[in-house]
Amino acid sequence: MPIASTVLNNMPAPLRFALAGLCLLLLALPIALLPLPYALVLVGGVTMLLLTIIDPVWALYAAVLAVPAQDLILLPGGISLVQAAVLLGVASWGLHILAHPHEPVLFGRPFAGLMLVGWALVLATALTPYNQNEAIKETVRWVLVVLVYLLAVNRLAAPGGWRAGGLVACLLLAPGINAIVGLWQFFTGTGPESFAIAGGFVRAYGTIGQPNSFAGYINMGWALAVALLGAALLHLWSQRTTRRASAVRCLLWRAQDWQRRCCWQHWGKPVAGWLGWCSWRRGGAAAGNRSCAA
Q1: Can you tell me the distance from the alpha carbon of 223 to that of 217, in angstroms, rounded to the nearest whole number?
Q2: Of 4, 32, 33, nearest to 19 (Cα)?
Q3: Strand spans (E) along the chain
Q4: Would you tell me how many other CB atoms lie within 10 Å of the CB of residue 163?
């Protein structure tokens, strides 16, 4: 990066503008030629890639927002949008670790319990004799859970408080949009006959596909947002309390210093003057005695 910036800075201004125009043309040409859905995917993918390179937390946002669409859109190889976002975020986070080796990797207090539960579920899933393909998929899901946890713990602890706010917004936005879809399905009766209930309504299932899974997603998403928001507010309150305590200690120190200064002004200076006067008197008397003796 420093070499590239040095080369760009040494270029003449017209050449820099020409290079920027060429890059924009190379980006705009495929967007103009491709169909609209593919163009939107291309623009969104390039934008997300650039944002993730800047800060891996953007991949975490993308993973949260992509949960409602993970069964609707699959990438080549059967990879969901959530899996692609998590892998992109972990790769970018790894590059950030290599670029800043002095920054420690945080694991957090729940990591040990998460690993114990995760290993128990992974072993129970991997050793099942029923369906090895499904077992591998479940194992990948639990590995992604651990990666998402580590990515969130380390990036939310980075300097700057906007990352937690962005995650709270994503945790509220994605379930909120899905809840609106579920309300429309319920009141219009749109859905499979097996989801039908009395009155011409159907059980809402959103984009998740199943009513129970939809309800669990809505409840867990908002609960996580409230918990994260509460933790962020508690952290801010503790910081303000610490600052207030520091300010009080500073004021007490100032008061004690002022008291010592006042004590010196009221008592120290007169005492010092009296001692000086006494020493001057003794010096004057001794000089008079020496003159009389002479």
Answers
A1: 10
A2: 4
A3: 74-75, 79-80
A4: 20
Maximum separation of any 2 CA atoms in the chain, in Å: 132
What is the pLDDT confidence band of residue 243, given thresholds at 50, 70 and 90? low
Q: Are 68 and 208 in contact (CB under 8 A)?
A: yes
The vertex-145 CA angle with 54 and 164, nearest 5°, equals: 45
- Cβ pair 97, 86 in contact under 8 A: no
Structure token digits, residue 218: 């809505």
Structure tokens at 109: 């207090």
Q: For residue 205, what are the contacts with CB-CB under 8 A and spacing of at least 6?
A: 182, 185, 191, 195, 211, 213, 214
Q: What does pLDDT average to over the chain?
A: 78
pLDDT tens sequence across 142-167 = 888 899 999 999 998 887 778 888 99
Burial environment of residue 164 by CB neighbours within 10 A (0 to 12, 13 to 18, 19 or more): buried
Please say if the pLDDT value at position 287 is more than 60.
no
- Pairwise CA distance, residues 202 & 194, whole Å: 9
Q: Which residues contact 200 (CB under 8 A, 6 or more apart)?
A: 189
Give a three-class secondary structure readout of 48-96: HHHHHHHCCHHHHHHHHHCHHHCCCCEECCCEEHHHHHHHHHHHHHHHH
Distance CA 28, CA 16 (A): 18
Q: What is the mean pLDDT of residues 112-123?
A: 84
Query: 37 is written with which tokens?
Result: 């859905």
The whole-number pLDDT of residue 278 equals: 57
Tokens of 158: 């980075």
Q: With contact defined as beta carbons under 8 Å apart, do 57 and 86 qualify? A: no
